[in-house]
Design brief:
This protein is an alpha/beta fold. Helix content is 29%, strand content 23%. The protein has a six-stranded mixed beta sheet with strand order 1-2-3-4-5-6, with helices on one face. The chain has a six-stranded mixed beta sheet with strand order 7-8-9-10-13-14. It has a five-stranded parallel beta sheet with strand order 15-20-19-16-18. β9 and β10 form a beta hairpin. α11 packs across α12.
């Protein structure tokens, strides 16, 4: 059996390529929309992708199931569990608890594991060339390394009302009746790692075992003591903000994401013509530099998505394709870099990148407003906005600040003043530059606090040292 993990550092998302080497057939679990890693694996190993499936209706990225099936002719399998409200809206084979997919010597068995979502499936995999019993468990957003999939996302991102409590109890039952019934040696391969908003404190190790989680996971004592109420309270406490774009991902993944097909070539723009099209607001410019460079001058009304490594994450904060259709032009050194950005952005359904320019030469620039720490006390009439996560805010914040995380600002403009200045900050300055660019494009007067929260702490420490001295 061939097993490969394809990991997206941007969204902390894992998909899996499982192949039977004897028959030359493979299945992919939880693919993303940019398909090169899966197609390359199949080609290098002389395999044909004959099946593609997913563990549940995802909220944090746009599924590549339909994209991969269209490119390879693979049969699609999706969950048929969860009741009428949780059925997929596109044609695919429905899997129910105990159903199997066979690829030569490999048996992939669907297991209904509700809690994170009602329709959630996990997969027990048996390598028949080696054993008659399952040795691998693909847990999706059910069990992570050291953590569990959060059951509150349906409330946070899908319009549910208090579904978190039923979800938490369903997770308890799934752990008791499914996960903990397996032998300790079974290897567990989750759909996310550290940094994902689909859990509270995910481990950074790629995989775990049933036995390790049974002995060491935070939730294990609650299961040993059959303390369901304590488990529910502990699970729901301190969950981070859910990004607002999760609601769009849920809707699109349920109905079926658009199939992109072969991507079009990207255009390298001449800056003279680009300047005119930006002035007429035909296009949206994406400045991909670090905030320190952006603060020296950037294109007016541009969006800041700093670096390809987090392009999907930050792109989904500042551009909502359900509200905005104008194409995107990137600041990128060359076409290869621009394609890499595009690959990241399509993972969150941003399909409108048409080109790039390698420089800002000849484009009219503006300097974003930045306020020094020493001047913060003179800005009493401004709204002080903390765009960090609510858990960070709870751990400490600048007195008088309001909290609205960067992944939610564009969807909660009603919480911001219609006029007047906003002074915004994050932890170090990166996230606030992203959020501030979106707010400026929306017409808000935003100044970023120099040094952000860490700078404020250092400034306060310096003031205290002076006063003591």
């Amino acid at each position: 059996m061939l097993l490969e993990r394809i990991y997206d550092e941007d969204l902390a998302q894992a998909s899996y390529f499982i192949g039977c080497q004897a028959k030359g057939e493979a299945i992919v679990i939880d693919p993303r929309r940019d398909l090169t890693p899966y197609l390359d694996l199949a080609r290098r190993n002389g395999m044909k992708i004959v099946a593609v499936t997913e563990t549940h209706i995802h909220a944090d990225y746009l599924s590549g199931t339909r994209e991969l099936a269209a490119a390879t002719g693979a049969t699609m399998y999706v969950s048929g569990e969860g009741g009428e409200d949780w059925q997929y809206g596109f044609e695919a084979e429905r899997l129910h608890h105990g159903d199997v997919i066979r690829l030569g010597n490999i048996v992939v068995e669907a297991r209904h594991t509700p809690g994170h979502t009602p329709e959630h499936l996990s997969f027990r995999v048996t390598d028949g060339a080696f054993s008659d019993h399952p040795g691998y468990y693909f847990s999706g957003d059910f069990v992570f390394v050291g953590d569990l999939g959060r059951p509150d996302l349906l409330d946070e991102a899908a319009g549910g009302v208090n579904t978190r409590f039923a979800g938490a109890r369903a997770l308890f039952a799934s752990l008791r009746d499914e996960f903990l019934t397996m032998p300790d040696y079974v290897q567990v391969h989750p759909a996310h790692g550290a940094g994902s908003a689909c859990g509270r404190a995910l481990g950074s190790i790629a995989s775990t075992t049933v036995g390790y989680e049974r002995e060491n996971a935070w939730w294990a004592p609650y299961l040993r003591d059959d303390d369901e109420d304590g488990f529910v309270t502990a699970l729901l406490d301190g969950q981070p903000d859910a990004h607002a774009y999760f609601a769009r991902m849920k809707r699109q993944n349920k109905l079926g994401p658009a199939v992109l097909g072969e991507p079009a070539p990207l255009v390298e723009f001449d800056n003279a013509s680009l300047a005119g099209r930006l002035a007429s607001d035909e296009l949206i410019f994406v400045d991909t530099r670090h905030n320190s460079a952006v603060h020296a001058g950037t294109v007016a009304r541009s969006l800041n998505v700093p670096g390809v490594g987090k392009a999907a994450s930050y792109g989904a904060w500042v551009y909502d394709p359900e509200r905005e259709s104008r194409p995107l032009v990137l600041l990128a050194d060359n076409e290869a870099t621009a394609r890499e950005y595009r690959d990241h952005l399509v993972r969150v359904g941003i399909d409108t990148v048409i080109g790039y320019t390698p420089s800002l030469d000849g484009l009219p620039l503006v300097v974003p407003a930045v306020i020094a720490q020493k001047d913060l006390g003179d800005a009493s009439r401004a709204l002080l906005l903390d765009v960090r996560n609510r858990t960070e805010f709870a751990d400490g914040h600048i007195p008088g600040a309001a909290q609205l995380s960067g992944g939610r600002v564009l969807w909660h403009l009603d919480e911001l003043p219609a006029d007047g200045r906003i002074i915004a900050y994050c932890q170090s300055g990166v996230r606030v530059s992203v959020a501030a660019s979106a707010l400026r494009r929306a017409g808000y007067d935003v100044a970023e606090l120099e040094g952000s929260y860490l700078g404020w702490l250092a400034h306060e420490d310096a003031k205290e040292a002076i006063s003591v001295g």
